[in-house]
Structure formats: C-alpha cells, structure tokens
Amino acid sequence: MNVSSVPRDAFCFVSQSRWSRGIFFGENPFSSNTSVLLAQLTLCALTTALLNHALAYLGQSLFVSQILAGVILGPSVLGSNAIIRDLLFPVSSFYTVDTFRFFGVMFYLFIVGVKMDMGLIRKSGKKTVVIGICTFSIPLLLNLVVSKLITMYVAMQPSLYSGMISIVSFQALSSFQVIVCLLADLKLMNSELGKLAISSSMISGFCSFVWVVVVFEGAHGAQVEKKTSLIMLLSTGMLVFFAICIFRPMIQWMNKHTTDVDSVKESYISGILILVLGSALYGEYLGQHFTFGPVILGLVIPDGPPLGSALVSKLELLVSSIFLPIFFVVSAARIDFSMISLRSFAIIEGLAVCTFFWKVVGVMLPSLSWNMPVNDALHLALMLSNQGMVEVLALDQAKSVRLIDEESYSIMVLSIFMLTGILAPIVKFSYKPSKRYMIGEQMTIKYTNPNAEIRMLACVHYQEHTPSIINLFEASYPHPEAPISFVVVHLIDLAGRSAPVLVPHHPGMRDPSPSNESNHIINALRYFEDEHRGYVAVYPYTSISPYNSIQNDVCCLAIEKRVSLVIILFHKHPLIHVSEEETNAIRNVNNNIIKESPSSVGILVDRGTMTYTTTLLRTSVYRIGVIFVGGPDDREALAYACRMGKHPNIRITLIRFLDESIGTTFSRQMAIDSDTINTYRDAQMTNKQWFYQEELVKDSLGLIAVIRSMESCFDLILVGRRHKDGSPLLAGLSDWNEFPELGCLGDMLVSLDSKCNASVLVVQQPSAISF
After folding, report:
1. Which of 696, 712, 711 is CA-nearest to residue 748?
2. Cα 349 from Cα 411, distance rounded (Å)
3. How many CB atoms lie within 10 A of CB 402?
C-alpha cells in the first residue's frame, strides 16, 4: 500500500485471532479478540459491582461507582501499567469494545423509554410543570449570559472558545432516568419529595431532550446543504410517524391479546427487538444518533404489564449489569488528566458551579412560591441537580461531532462525577421521609373514642389475603353507632416502570386497576361494603412502588386518612406458596412499616381460622383470647379486643399474667396496667361474652406452660409485641426468636414446634410512643 493513501489519523496494530485453543495447546488465551472481550466484560462488571456494594453505605449512587470503575481500569490507574494495558486493553480491542458498549447503551435507552410513563406529563400539575421548566431554562439562560461575559474578559484556547455555547447547553441538561435511578439507589422514589422530583424531572427531561435534538440537528445542518438538512428532518419525522401511527397500534394489539407477563409470546419480543435494531440502523444511515430510534420506539410502548414488564425483565439485568459497565469504563478511560490545563479546568468548573447554583434557584423559587418548606425546597433542588449516564452519553456524542473537544469532555465528565458524588450522600443522610410520620397526636385504638368512628388500614399482597382481611374487618364489629372506615392498599413491586404510582379506586369512575388481581380484591371489598351499607366505608388503593420504599405510601395514607390501626399480613400464609426471595421481600416491607408507621400496627398471622371462616355473621361463637403481660402494646391489644367484644358472635377471654414473686409491690408501669384492666373489667361486667382470668407464674417456663395449655381454646389470639424489659416472666424467650417482628410471645405462638392452630394478631403502638 502506498503510504500516502493511509489516513492521517490511522494507526497500525498486530491483528489477533478470533479465538484461542487454550493454554493446554501452548497458546495464550489473551491472544484472541474473543478472550480479551470476555475478560473486559467480566472485569468491568465485577469492579462496578464491588465498588457499588462498598460505596452504597456512603450514600453514593450507582453512577459514581461506574465512573470510578472506569477511572481505576483506565490509563490513569491500572492502565498505566504497560503489561496490564497490553494484556487486557490492547489497541486491537477498541473497535470490538466500542461496538459492545454502544450496543448496551442502545438497549439501555430503549428500556428507559419503555419504563417511562408519558402520561405523567399530561397529569402533571401546574407546580410540577413550572418547577420542571425552571430546572432547565433558568440554568441555560443565565449561564449563557455568564459564558458570554467570560469569553469577553477571559483569555482561553480557541477550541474552548468555539465550544462555549455547547458546554453551557450540556451542563444545563436534566434527565428523568438519572433522577429516577438516583432516587431508587437512595430508596426515596415514593417519598413525598421523591414523587415531586420524578414528575418535575419528566418535564425538565423532555425540555432537555428537545434541546439536545435541536443542538445536534443544528450541528448537522451547519455541515450540509439546506436541502439536505430538510431531507434529514423529513426522514426523522418519518421515523416518529412510524413509531406513533404503526408501531404503537401494533403494540396495543399485542397487549390486548396478552393476559399477563408470563403469557407474552416470544414472537412478540423478537419482533420488537428486531424493529429496535432496524430503527438504530435507520438512524445511523441518515446521520442521526443510533439511539434516537430505540428511544422513540421505547417511549410509545406502554409501561408496566404485560408487554412493558416482559421486555424490561428480559433485558434490564443483562444490559445494566454486563453491557453498561463497559460503556462507563471506556468513557472514563478516555479522560486524559495530562491534557487538562488549569485555566480550562477553572473556566469549565466555574460554569458548572454556576449551573448548579442556577438550578437550585430555579427549583427553590417556584417551590417556595407554592409555600413549600425551605428545607424541602432545598432537598428537592439537590435531587434535581444531579446528572449521570444520559448526560455522559450526550457529551460523548457531542465530542464525536466536534461540538466540544477532548479536554472539555474530560473536564465535564469529571464535573458530573464530583457533583453527583457530593450531592447524593447529602440527600441520603439529611432527608428523612420518616420524620414526617412522627406526629404529636397518638393515632391508636386506645386513644380513639370507643363509640366514635374508627379508621383502619390494611395492606395486602395477594388476593388470597382478602378473606383474612375481610374476616378481621367483620371481627372489628362495624355497626351504626360505631362505623368503621377501611383503607385497603394492594402492594405491588415496581416492575416495567420507572415511576411509582398510587392508584385510588373510587366507585363510579373508570377503574385504572393495573392488574386482574387488584380487581378481584376490590370486588370482594365492595361486596363487604354493600353487606354493611351505612356503617362501613371501603377505600381501595393500589400502590406500585419498589418494595424497599413502599412503606412511604402506607405511612402517607395512614396520616392522610387519620387511621388508628395498620394491619399487615405475616409473610407466611397457608394458601400462598412463592419463592423465598419474594417472601423475604414481603417480610422486609412489613418490618419497614412496623418501624415507620405513625399508627398502631397489627401483624396478622393467619393459620387458617381467618381464611376458611366464611364470615363471622354465620359463625355461632368465635373465640378470641387476649394475653396480657403488661406494657403499652398489651394495652393497645386489649383496647382493640374491647371493640371486638361488642360483636354478638365473639367471646373474649382476657388472661393476665402476674409475677407471683412481686407480691404487693407495684411499679408505675404495673399501676397503669392494673388501672387499665380494672377500667375494662368494669365496662364489661354486664357482657356475658367477656371472661377474665389471672395466672400467677414465677418465670418464663410457667408462662409458656399456661399458654400451651390454652392453645386449642381460641380461634384468634391477641398479644402485644413489646413488653417490659427484664421481666422474669419473659427471661430467655427472646434468645430463640425466629421472627423478632412478632415479639417473644407472638413468635412462640407461631413457631414450628407450637401446636397452636389459632391465628395470631400481634399489636404494637407507634414506635414514636415511648413506654
């Protein structure tokens, strides 16, 4: 080949084979492209996972771990060693790595589009729209003014001067998916501010997306003739037309012919993925970015089940855990610290600080005008000021079309990394949604007027929980003189969506139920309400949120509806058989509700007596026992039992355990317990369905013996979760607790070696109430 025919930016390297026969044939495995690629994917994924596991405790997001992994594996740290660089990241592997990293990005952004609910833009209130627009527009406009002043009075390199407007434009960007991922990492997705941040970021992200398209179209238009630019715009419009008018009806037809996630046909998934690849090729052919088509197709696919959830479940784990880390490693590896000048660094970082300040101003001004507390407005501003993977991808594309130079790219990626690394821990450790639930008023059964309306909230995960809940509602004895309002929340783990939703199901309105299971639950509740018309009101909801923060929806509803008791179902149920992973997830949800609930909590362990009883109205006698050892939780259980005791078909037996070694010595706690018992005994003297007995025992063995002797005497047993610490009656019981959330007595009643067939309701007053 003639030397003059070689392009100026070309370089030569030794070609590697496609595969290696292995060390037993005397060949180096890393002499093949395939082995090197597998090593790179493995190393990038493993390093990212280890860093994320370590840094999560410091409040860092996944994005920080991904960039840090790229820096560590890049030329600045491990890559500086020539042996490691030539072995794992040879020049000959760059083309293959680039293909894989962009392939991962393409499908990642397609998943982002699928999980987005475009209806959030339509449903957004005025406050959300104003905050979203200000989050993008104020930093962009004010920083354009600042950049103009800098270019007038500060000397800089020509490449930085020509790219100043592009730098300011990309610094002002905001991404919906980045904010959602950050809030998911911080477990704040369905907190009050988290929901507002997600809705606002949808608006600001849409503005950013439109602006990025304008910037890149302008860059392309400046390099081609006007006629060619118009043809490019027309071709882009054709892709959008195909997505809306052809692809979306096709997806709606698929959804209509699919009942649930598990029944989605493989041919549907394959056809969609082929069209995604074809849209990317179409974009590349026209000079558009290859991710534009997949994003548009993703946006027109309805989020959630069945099709959206199926696509996400099949793609997300592989793409985000294996393919995506290589993108960040290569992006961070291209940061060359040696080429960064101090003057350029100061100018770009100064603009970044100004952008952050303008974003804080742009969020806080409209927030404060809507009377939001200053502390909440500031935390919302910190959430919306974060950037991440989408902005890095935009910078990478801007560098490829020469809107910014290599030096500016390196500084801006570092800026995003440092800003996110600082803001995420601040938000995590300073914003505590649970503080909102610690209200002064005691929302308990004990402090509710026994002759007034009572409000209860129940959480269900499966339709099999419905009979248990309805029978407990019936046992609560709603009647005309003491009506009851029941709030029931169907808890569903977030899948196939980006944003959590809380859906109310009001009678008479178009039911937006997201699943058939929710419909079955709601229908059963409506039937129960009709049977008790006039003194029962049922308010069904469906909460679709990540399990690690779904308790926020429950606590917010408890405060909003002023409920006195929150009922949660024990994670083990005789009719439900699910994976151990799902069981543990439900158990964690229960524990979070127990810790953060502003109301009393009842943990219902149904051992069949609540499930198989059709209704208490058709049962001659339903036997309930109350175990009373002492303490606020036992007093709360007794208060609830007294409401139940008014039911004509319920017989209450109160068993009080006394320490025979104490004699006549009474502490303040025991005096309160005795007064409570005496008050309820006096109130129930004329009630022939109420029984009382005292048991004198000297230690925990005596207490266990008495309880075991009466296990078969009841259909339901009420017991407090917590008791007085150091009581000899409970000594040693907590050492063998299998389920600490049930307390020592509740755990004993449901343990494997117990022969008790009665269901158990473990009651706890709010954690904020002291003993």
Report:
1. 711
2. 8
3. 13
Whether 541 shows a pLDDT value over 80: the answer reads: yes
Residues shown for the chain: 771
When mean pLDDT is compared over 150-154, 488-492, 703-707, the highest value belongs to: 488-492
- pTM of the complete model: 0.79
Gap between the Cα atoms of 453 and 486, Å rounded: 11
Residue 69 lies in a domain: no
DSSP 551-584: HHHHHHHHHHHT-SEEEEE-S--TT----HHHHH
By residue range, what is the domain housing residue 385? 111-314+338-430
User: Looking at residue 211, which CATH number applies to its domain?
Assistant: 1.20.1530.20
> Are 486 and 362 within one domain?
no
For residue range 448-458, list pLDDT tens digits in order: 877 778 899 99
**Residues 254 and 301 placed together within one structural domain of the fold:** yes
Distance CA 595, CA 77 (A): 44
Amino acid at 251: I
| 96-125 pLDDT tens trace | 777 888 888 888 888 888 887 776 666 777
Per-residue pLDDT tens over the stretch 606-665: 887 777 655 555 557 888 999 988 888 888 999 898 888 888 888 888 888 887 766 555
- Predicted confidence band of residue 1 (pLDDT cuts 50, 70, 90): very low
**Does the residue 398 lie in any domain?**
yes
Decide if 160 contacts 344 (C-beta within 8 A): yes
If phi > 0 it is left, if psi is from -120 to 50 it is alpha, else beta; for residue 234 that is alpha
481 vs 484: CA distance, rounded Å: 10
pLDDT digits (tens, 9 = 90+) for 35-79: 888 888 888 888 888 888 888 888 888 888 888 888 788 776 777
Is the model's pLDDT at 490 over the cut of 90? Answer: yes
Q: Is 714 in the same domain as 569?
A: yes
Query: How many CB atoms are located within 10 Å of the residue 1 CB?
Result: 5
pLDDT at 207 over 70: yes
Q: Are 416 and 467 found together in one domain?
A: no
Q: What are the helix (H) ranges across 431-571?
A: 466-475, 516-531, 551-561
Place of tokens 């997505």: 243
- The residue among 113, 111, 176 whose CA lies nearest residue 383 is 176
The reply to whether 70 falls in a domain is: no
Phi and psi dihedrals of 597, rounded to 5? Answer: -65, 135
Instruction: Please identify which residue in the block is written with the tokens 């779904």.
Output: 550
Q: Are residue 426 and residue 461 in the same domain, yes or no?
A: no
Q: What is the mean pLDDT of the chain?
A: 81
Q: Kindly give the pairing relationship between strand 759-764 and strand 484-493.
A: unpaired
Cα(662)–Cα(264) distance, rounded to whole angstroms?
Answer: 67
Burial environment of residue 328 by CB neighbours within 10 A (0 to 12, 13 to 18, 19 or more)? buried
- The tokens describing 608, both together, are 């069949």
pLDDT above 70 as % of the chain: 85
pLDDT in tens, 245-258: 998 888 888 888 88
User: Residue 730 and residue 227: Cα distance in Å, rounded?
Assistant: 86
Same domain, 467 and 393: no
What is the Cα–Cα distance from 245 to 250, expressed in whole angstroms? Answer: 9
> Does residue 652 contact residue 644 with C-beta atoms inside 8 Å?
yes
Strand partners, 28: none
Using the 3D structure, point to which of 430, 465, 492 is the last residue of a domain: 430
| 359 in a structural domain | yes
625 lies in the same domain as 516: yes
Across the range 553-572, mean pLDDT stands at: 90
